[in-house]
Predict the structure of Sphingomyelin phosphodiesterase 4.
Amino acid sequence: MAAPAMQQPSYLLANLKMDSTTKPFLQCCQELVKVIDDYPAKELHLIFPWLVESVFGSLDGVIVGWNLGFLQACSNRYNIVMDFLNPRYGPMMKLVYKLQAEEYKYEIPVSFLPNYSLGQHVSSLDSAYFVLVDTYLKYFLPTEGSVPPSPFTYKRGSVSPPAPRAPSVPFAGYGIHSTSLLKRHISHQPSVTADPAAQEIWRSEALLQVFVEMWLHHYSLEMYQKLQSPQVKLALLQYRLSMSSMLCQPLTPPGSGTLDTYQPFTPTEEHVLVVRLLVKHLHAFSCSLKPEQVSSSAHSHTSPLEELKRVVVHRFVQQKLYVFLQHCFGHWPLDASFRVVAWVSYIQPWRYTGEKTNPQTDQNKGVPEKWRFFVQENLLMYTKLFQGFLNRVVRTDLVNVKNALMVFRVAKVFAQPNLSEMIQKGEQLFLEPEHVLHHRQHRCFLSPGHGGSFLSARQPVVTDRVFRVKSHVYGLEGQDCQYKQMFGTELRGTVLKLIQIIDQARQTAKKISDQSAEVAANNSFMSWFGMGSPDLNYTFNGGEVDDTGACVKKTHEFLERSLDYLCQIFRLNAGQLSQLMATLGSGQDDGNSKQLPDCVQGENGLILTDLGRMQVINGLRRFEIAYQGDPELQPIRSYENAILVRLFFKISSLVNERFGGHMDALCSRPDFLGQLGRHYLASPEAAADGRRRSPETRLTAEGYRRPRLSLRMLASYRTLLMLLLLYLFGALFSFGLMSSTLLILTYFYLNGRGKCRFLPK
């Protein structure tokens, strides 16, 4: 931040800087309060830039500031900071009002507005940063009452707003970017008889513009180039010129709200959380419009605050939020954290009306008819972003319970009664031919300032509705956009593909649940007798480690209900769904999980196709992952005795080195002794069906393919306990040591489990 030019050195500023490094935080704040109260604006205007950096941090990162994003209520500083920055009575706002009353201004490039630094993360929603954002929104954009007047008055009077807008075109310039975002036009002061509310509403506008610039002015490079394209701007301008001449609409320049510079941007979870907080409050603010103002046919006596409520979402937020959400859809990781993106909050403004309703009853009642205008004039928010969501979901692991919950929530939103019909009606209006539009009756466009409203109960003429929908789509995508219908043939095919993936994930979740129950049974007390799985580190494919038990049951439930909702949205009857599932089932067999994923042969080996990635993600097929080296050299497991493993390895190595030739000769014999030798001394490679499943040198492979003795199995605690119990059992029947050993070897030979070597499963 830069203060006005030709500043003189300030001893007061120098003293405050010195005190901030030597005195406790509370004492520094107390002295700042005293300075703000006692000193005139002439001295304070030099302090303001330094104070802003001290609180929020410097642009170069050298000054950290007060760390509002990490400051929790349990901290000793929390209450001090919240009082100092309070919008109603805080010293910081008192300083702002004091400087504005004296007409001091500070030039700040819009590109310098603060954003989250790389690697910096806000800890939680109850940090001072989020609480302050919520406090400022509720104070300057109240859902009840009016904006409180400035609590500070000075000799020169209260702070003056910018030049008032002409009544004929109210709020027509909202969204138009200006290099002086907050600069007041002092030469145009309102008259003393002006509405006092008009003197205060400009502060609400200024705050909202700052928040929008900070949090929503982020584009991908492709979107930025598209918005800056002369062809897009010219096409939109030509369309609006032709339509505004017929519909008597005040013309708004195309591409409003875009800046002249591009800044790379990577969204973070904390960033989208604060955007979601903004969206929710703006919906609540807009929905608090008084019923008498909604039904009024003339707005000559409408207060500026009520007028702002009518247009705040469309004029301030719609375009920038759409671009921001598109960027998030394209760059957000394919995991369950995507649920924090503010898309679902924006497309459900009826949730923030302030009415207390039962969620189940509200779901059955559906979307009120008065919201059809909002749906139509935000058509791309529903259709284009839903298509982006589908493209993400088909590449997501739906066996994961968090991802399944995310799909369930989105499907539940779009399955609300009346919503799909409203979206279809909006698509019909957009696709209406131009020659039909020009032959309709000549009517004036009902702008928000002339009686139009998202909440208006009157049925506007079709011409106005068509223009509004087309203007919305062309304003965001350009007149040459190739619109893809949400209920068209192409997207319907994508939905059917998603239904197949959901059903496959549901089957995988059921398999995991069954395997979990089986492993739980095997790992009971009887597993100590050698009947359980020897690999205690066994995990299932197609889901995370915690996706077992109750989580898998939840996954199955979420996916089941998601299928029902998708059938409601796209009007798929039970017969069509059954046929689809039958087609899916006919293409699978019981051994599907043992097949490799779909791959193509590349120069460096197998390469997964898109189908193969989907199969791996959803656990339908997998690569067989197992240890393929020398079994004797595997890491020591938790169920093995490390000393015995090393001891038996040395004994086995000595025996194999000295009697290796005799073992080869024994295994080559065709008689019973040869069969017995091959059973106990067969190579690991032979036991694995002779398959070579990993790259290895010929010398290394031949080294452990030869018949050899392995005693590692005897180092297992379970094997030792089992042998001890068997020998004790033999002693009860008066069997000697050699007799018991012979019986144990015979039993293992007949049972096919008693090879004196360690074979990985």
